[in-house]
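Comment thread on ticket #2218

A.B. wrote:
> Attaching the input chain for the structure job we discussed in standup.
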Amino acid sequence: MSLKLTVKVVGSLYNKDGKLTQRIVTHNLITNSGYTALLNNFGGNTPTVFNKIAVGNGATPPSLQDVSLVAETARTNATFKKERALSSGTLVANFIAGEATGEITEAGIVASDGTLFDRVTFAPIKKGALDTLELTFTLNFKEV
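C.D. wrote:
> Ran it. Output below, let me know if you need it in another format.
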């Protein structure tokens, strides 16, 4: 038996009136540093706490060797919620009006110490100064 980890990413852009204006759904690439941090959490080391989501405007495809976003423009705190017993959890961050404005093409989960867990690129999200962007990363563990 093996364990598979996948991460689904949903980006929802809302205008100043709260109307959904753009939505992206995609999957990410977990980086080598993300896998290392995850495994080190089991080894009695000081836990790596993944509690932030970063966004940027880099377009280079994700790589296992990525240690940061290509062109990070903003980072904010994220909230974690465990779902469906132990097999799934979500990390959600909101970039409010005035934050992360401009064209966003990449995102990732980042630890408080700066460790990049994953990275994803996508078609441009054009966030205006009055818009809010909600990013949801859903982590799913499945026995295969």
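A.B. wrote:
> Thanks. Noting for the ticket: Residues 3-139 form one domain.
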